[in-house]
Specification:
The chain is mostly beta strands and 115 residues long. The protein has one helix and eight strands; from the N terminus they run βββββαβββ. The chain is 15% helix and 47% strand.
Length: 115
């Protein structure tokens, strides 16, 4: 069973990207044909920054994400603009140690569609 991402909030300025799985063919007369690939054609990804969080909070996030890499599982997370949780994987990420005991984690959550 999937775990839920720890309740540590990112700073706002969250970047949401949507890259639908479609192919468009535009013909000379202006007609356009759209072909969808698969059932879940509209995955989302979020670029998040957890800025100036404590070292303990950054350790919590890193341990959680490392465990998801180790077990190969997705995790549940509710995006700021969504009303329910969805399934995500977090790759890649980086950690910046700003000051003693303060860190910043930059990570991308990519939506997955698994049973």
């Amino acid at each position: 069973m999937a775990e839920t991402f720890p309740s540590i909030d990112p700073v706002y300025g969250v970047e949401k990207n949507v890259n639908p799985s479609i192919t468009r063919t535009r013909f000379q007369d202006g007609y356009e044909q759209v072909v969808k690939f698969g059932l879940n054609i509209n995955p989302k990804s979020y670029s998040l920054i957890f800025e100036n969080i404590t070292e303990a909070e950054s350790d919590t996030i890193e341990a959680f994400l490392d465990a998801r890499i180790a077990d190969g599982d997705y995790f549940n997370w509710q995006a700021p603009d969504e009303t329910s949780t969805s399934k995500y994987r977090a790759l890649p990420r980086k950690k910046i140690i700003n000051y003693p005991n303060l860190a910043t984690i930059e990570v991308t959550f990519n939506e997955v569609f698994e049973p």
